[in-house]
Amino acid sequence: MYLSELTIVGFKSFAKKTHIKMHDGITGIVGPNGCGKSNIVDSIRWVMGEQKSGALRSEVMGNVIFNGTATAKPVGMAEVSLKIENSGNTLPIDYAEVIITRRLFRSGESQYLINGNSCRLKDIMDLFMDTGAGPHTYSVIELPQVERILNGKEDERRHIFEEAAGITKYKLRRKATFRKLESTEKDLIRIEDIMSEVEKNVRSLRRQVAKAERYQEITSELRGLEIKLADNDYALILDELEPAETRLGLIRDEREGASSSLATQDADYETTRARLLEIEKKLLENQRTVSDLDRDVQKLEERILVNKERIRSLEESGLRSSQEKERFDAHLAELQQQYSVSQELYREAEKSLAAKREEYEKANGELQEVRIQFESRRSLAREAENRVLQITEELNRKQNEGERLKATEENLSQRLHQLDADAGKDDTRAAELADILHKTRAEEAGLAETLAKKKQRLAEISRREEEAKRLFEVLQKNESQDRSRIEVLGHQAELVRRLIDNYEDYPAGVRFLATLKKDGFATHGPLANIIHVENQHRTAIAAALGDAATYLVVEESNTAFNGIGLLREERRGIVTFAPRQEMGSTLRERPVLRDLGVIGWADELVSCEDRFSQLVHQVLGAFIVTQDLQTAHRVFAELRGQSYSVVTLSGEVLSHNGFIRGGVLSKNQSDFVGRQEQLAALTSEIEKLQQGLEARRVQLAQRETEIQENKIEAEQLRKEIQESEQALGSLRIQLGRQTFEEQALGEARAKREAERQRIIGEVSQLGHNLELQSLGAGDLQTQRQEIAARAGALSEEIKSIEVAVERASVRARELNVEVARLQSDFEAMRRESEGLHRQIVETEALIKTRREDAENAAAEIKELIQVNERYGQEAEQQQTRRTEVQAVLDELEEQQYQANVRVAEAEKLIRASRGKFDVLSESAHQIELRVSELKLKAENLQARLWTEYEYKLKRTAADGEFNAEEAHQRLESLRERIKEVGPVNLLALKEYEQEKERLDFLQTQRDDLIKARKNLMDTIEIINTTARQKFLETFEQVQHNFAEVFSKFFAGGRASLVLQETADPLESEIDILATPGGKKPAALTLLSGGEKSLTAISLLFAIYLVKPSPFCIFDEVDAPLDDQNVQRFTHALREFSTNTQFIVVTHNKLTMRAADQLYGVTMEEQGISKLVSVKFDSMKNDQLVPAASSAPAN
To answer: Which of 84, 577, 1162, 1182 is deepest in the core (most CB within 10 A)?
Structure first.
């Protein structure tokens, strides 16, 4: 069996589909850090069923899905498929080739497949069980696991040995058997608990059967007597009922006649009333018609007035439009005349402008010719003048330079004298500054020291203030806690007080009678309220009392009987009474208790008023209170056979009649006892807390005063510190200025000295320069005279040309001015003409608008006059119709009056008839009530007899010998006897048979469970024996192999495995002892990283000798090894590769050389891993020789 192919899609950094084909032997996986080598190991571990995300170097399992990069999108699913060659049937499956696939979606859904068929995770785990392969076996070893194998948890180390021994399945079966055994034990306990309860029910039902038989005898006689009484009562009811029904029939007939007459009158009345309503409806319609006609006439008149006003307005508007049109016509004629004159002047100005422009162009051409000749001569003259000026400037420069040199020499001499004077002044100022600086620095030191002391004082005050605030907050917190505690205790006290006063949690009957205020009935309250008990005995006393805590204490039995009567009347439940005066007063002698665990007799541990002492002794006198259940058991055994019960402080009760009660006492039941003491304790604690609260208030006031004083003092100090800091700052500024001035004086002194030396050098240079200035001045003078003569001749020629230019220029300017004037006049005329044309157009548009307005107004006036005529005709028609409707309205009003008179007469007749009908109805109703009452009595009597006895009443002849009064007395006597019998379970016999049958069934089940428990324990013993034998055999072999392998890796080294002695070897710890050659024995933690790694590898190879793993994956376990140990490691790999396939993730070149094939993992694209594979056939000159190189394996 070996891994033949691994396919990865979307798992961690392998975004694209990647196929890795592997062979038996050694496969190496190499690549730089962070490229994704370990992700291949994680994918194999993951597909074999790894469920811990931490083992996959991830926080959550969803992180194994490729999450995308800057250039690649995330994927929605991670899938890994692992193909395994199973030709040797190492895996328990009938396939020579097994493909295991695991998928995980971003939604969290997972899928597991074996050969393409869906399966469970458990199926995959079972497939690898005891094969030496799997996510948690020794088939996948990472470098951190080396440390865990040697120094990790004992369970992890022992798991490797268990996997090698093949007992994992035995341990899982044992664990499952233990779960079944635990379930069986629970079922057995449950069955026994149920049986205990059922046995109790069977005993109780056996007693109830006898009681039920007595009850049936009495009820049988009671039934016969009640039937006779019911027959007699039924006959009496029928004797009265029949005459009443006859009389009721007569009255009903008479009432029917009256009803018929009343119905006829009602019909006539309704007819008359309907006619009246019809008249009123027509009247209302005609009134609405008159009102509508009046509104229509008014609207028409209003519209006519509005239209007349509109006509008047339109006539005035038309008149204004006509007047404006006449005015606009006159203005248009005037504008047209002005426009004609303007057009004539515009054309003449255009001709004059063209002639002047032609003349100006000619004069301007002549001017340009003369200017060109002038510029030529002037350019030659300028050149001559410029040369003269240059020579003159050179002569002036030489002269000025000589004068400047003389002046500079004088200035330098004066500067030397000035520098000497300034040096004297600076020396005097430097001496003064030194004295001032000394005084300023001394003042600064004094101020700084004073400021530091003040800051130290402020820090001390701040610390005290913070401490005071902290204490103040603590006091406030404690005060708040005390207030909360007082509030909580107050609520608790109020609750207890309410429970005491109102008996809220007592049974309804006790609460009713205890709070009842009625003459002739008085109680002392429940028994729990008349006793007082200390808190440590409260639970024990409550357990001893049990239901007796709610017994209602009365003076005598008559009061109890009265209470029972009240309970029956109000249906308030059942109450147990304790008549104080009728309780036994004999105190029997009780045994002396010498056991140290005995607290005392229960009645002696409580207190009460003397008058209740006998009652308390009667209830609690037979109870002994002990410290614990063990003492109770001893005392109970000692007093067995006597009528004494034992109760512990925690509430367990051992009753003298054999019953044992224990567990957790009901809180409500415990609260019945000692409530007065609980209320007193709560009140006392509240008072103590209130006193403490007052003391804290005083402390709070003191702390608040202290905080305020510290604040005032700190504020004063802060002001003083601020003033001192300001003064110190000003002083330091002054000191800085003085220091700067001192430095400036020193720098000025150095500069002056440098300047003095520079001036001395410059003075000597000036004398030499003055001698050079006098040379060459004569030659420059001669050149200047020659050039000046030539420039004079050119100047005369330029003047004559300049006169000609001036004349031509004047003529051109005059013509240009004339052209500009004509152009301006021409433009003004054009603008005036255009303005007149716009006015003409606008005036014509206004005239057209006014003409249209007048025409529209005339048309609208004509239309409004026609509308008014139509409105007048409609108003006359509406007025005529109103007159007609008013006549109809008057007639209807008269008909309404006549109808009202007839309705009033009909109502008078109906009232008389209805009075007679009501009298008959009342008589019939009274008789009907009596008949109904008699029938109801008869029906109730029949229903009661049928419900209680299934007897149907019948009318019989009167029995003269039957005495109903004596029968009632006998009936009461039988009922009293039934009460004396008490509550009876009539189904007791049936229930007894059912419970007995159930008990027999439970006994059979218990026997089956006991047998199953024995079988499970036998199975566990067999599993333990087999697993121990396999484990110990494997351990001995691994121990022997470990010593041999270790000595090969470490020459002269010694190693051993030690199994700690315990009752169960399967749970024993395994210690590893290893001492490399030449070293003293030491703890494993003191070994180097390489020694630890090699020791762990030795242990793994020792296991492989016993049970080879089909494949083994090493993830950089050779990282801590040196070259020599790496060679040993690779030699061992080669030796074991005949039985085990090795996949090694490594950076070591020696390990790479040992590999039969190499896979290189790269990351050409950031965040995405890529694979390149190479298979090697031989080695030449210590170089790897590839047999074939494949393309990237993805």
So the answer is: 84
